Amino acid sequence: MENGLEDGTLVHWHGIRLPNAMDGVNVLTQDVIIPNEGYEYRFPVSGSRCRNLLVSLPLPFLRTGRPRTVRPLIVEEPAPPDVDQDITAILFDIRLDDTGQFDMEFDRADFITAGRLGDLMTTFLSSEQARLGDHIRLRLINPTPDRIFEIRIDGLTGFCVAYDGMPLPELVSLGNLKLAPAQRIDIIADVTGDVILRETVPSGGEELGGIMLNGQRQIRSAPIAPLPANLVPAPGEITQTADLFMQGGAGDGAHGGFGGWAFNDVSGLPNKPLISARRDEAVQVRMVNDTAFPHGIHLHGHHFWETDQNGARTHLRDTTLVAPGKTMTIVCVLDNPGAWMLHCHMLSHQADGMATWVQVS
Questions:
Q1: How far, in Å, CA of 74 to CA of 43, rounded?
Q2: Residue 204: its pLDDT value, please?
Q3: How many C-beta neighbours within 10 Å does residue 10 have?
Q4: Residue limits of the Plastocyanin-like domain (predicted)?
């Protein structure tokens, strides 16, 4: 990677299992790449733990408000499912000023509330045409800094087959879909009409983009099957439990001195990790959202299990959304050595202090 920007930057490969030195995190894994210098990222790509990735350079965006660089990197299975089209849909929002130009300002309110939200929402699609009856794979990716997308999709009959690149053991029916920043959803479905992606909150049906019909084919009779499972070690006995209290933001007088946001009374990366574990330890983290805003929490280098109210493991993800006043408990086998960042993926919140780390020896 050659840095032709006016500012230092790094590349983080969101969603891929790689050596810690290649993770692209300042302080924890490498120094910032200064302007006019470069760095070679080198790591194996096995399709076992990564399917839809985000490749991002977020630091210049957070300093200037200019759109950051985001590209999807698709790692295919050894035997991809038989579909007529494989389509990527990148959800995005854009903030415009009164003249209709890109708004480059970054207000303090963007940091201490829900984040920097655009006023124009859209979808960038790798294909905008399909035949009636086509059997398609649709990869939804939310690379926005702060916006949670809540959408529905008209014109498809099918199922969600993967979250954050991890196949679902049981298919999930299509309904209203919610994606926090950096989350991904894979869908396999039949085209039954014009495919329209609609944003359901707050507008109640605003069109984000669509795939228009062009021709027709016979709908396949074979049922949709789950994708082959990824090889992920099942957790044994939980050896450590940690609490992660989310604090700060507008209206939080008790934590206003943190400069915005904090984990466990610390704003910014602490000197000591939240967890220090030996390789292959199974740990549990109880994430408590004591703020007035939602937070999407991402762990680098690993996937983890979300759990339900009864403590049962549900979905494997690398980013989980915790609503205001709610608690999410995750279980993770820490099997990838290194210093791994754990942070809010509302990047305005991360930049203003909502970050910690775990150490795997």
A1: 15
A2: 73
A3: 21
A4: 2-48, 262-360
